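Project channel, design review

CF: Before we commit to the Streptomyces corchorusii constructs, I'd like one complete example in the thread so the newer folks can see what an input/output pair looks like. Taking Delta fatty acid desaturase.
RD: sounds good, go ahead.
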Amino acid sequence: MTISPQAVAATVPGARPRPSGAGAGSDFARLSRRITEAGLMRRRPGYYTTRLGLVIALTAGGWGAFAALGDTWWQMATAAFLALMFGQIALVAHDLAHRQVFRRRRPSELWGRLFGNLGIGMSYGWWMNKHTRHHANPNHEELDPDVAPDILVWSTEQARDARGLARLIGGHQAGLFFPLLTLEGFNLHVASLRALRSPGMKHRTLEAALLLLHLAAYQSALFLVLSPGKAVAFLAVHQCLFGVYLGCTFAPNHKGMPTFRGDERPDFLRRQVLTSRNVRGGRLTDVLLGGLNYQIEHHLFPSMPTPHLRRAQTVVRAYCAEIGVPYHETGLIQSYREALTHLHQIGEPIRQQRRRGA
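CF: and here is what came back for Delta fatty acid desaturase:
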């Protein structure tokens, strides 16, 4: 359901809606000063050297185990491990894209393409374009590509207008959400290759060369080491689990949170906070979700190094309470429950249309 910031604020005790004009921007400016004074925007080269080194070493170890095991069904365990590592590579590419690792654009793009295109077969340029638009207008139905109606619908208005595949599955999209995630890994590869035809794609030749090199090396490894049946099984297990892992990492962030339409566009701070959900958890949650469990802080300060997000949360949460902006945080399981409940409710217009037509 589309909810305006004022409506959201009215449902939370003590929350005070504020104007979305230029004057309200000072709220973010004050918060930004507090964050900067706390030293939370400083680079963390030691952390990222260790993290990138571990991801590279563990991924190389996974492929080393793959080569050592040879043609055996035990390779399905290797596929599961490498699905986890592909997800971690994607999270590293995400941090590189936001210049959390390097301050300058050129090294960020170089390493982003190495991790994204070459490492997991996902176009860095395609993803950057899509993700930049998402950050600028999160959960805006006309401006955020992540909530554009495609296979799934994200608001009752989209459900009423749904056609084709979205209409076919929209009434049951909550139950189909996790099964559909098994296709997300394949979708990333297909979307990346399609993006190469886009006239706006920068460094198209480099993007294409790295993507094709990844695909050639990946498929060659599978079919040289494994029998055809095991190779296909490995590919299916690996890519399906990779898709589920990515989906489980990103789904809690915005799904089921308020969406905007038309000229509903509050100031920057409210635009980011009202549409984002934080996920509580310990250090393991931080590692598995790559820091995206602090989605509110990440959206407010995209270039903040991941290890600072936990400390920034204390500052941001207190500040939101101070100015009366709702700050939503829940556990991991509850975050999925909220997202699935939202998807089920959104599908009601489609179910009603089917009942009337029956």
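RD: helpful, thanks. Residues 228-254 form the longest helix (27 residues).
CF: Confidence is low (pLDDT under 50) at residues 1-25.
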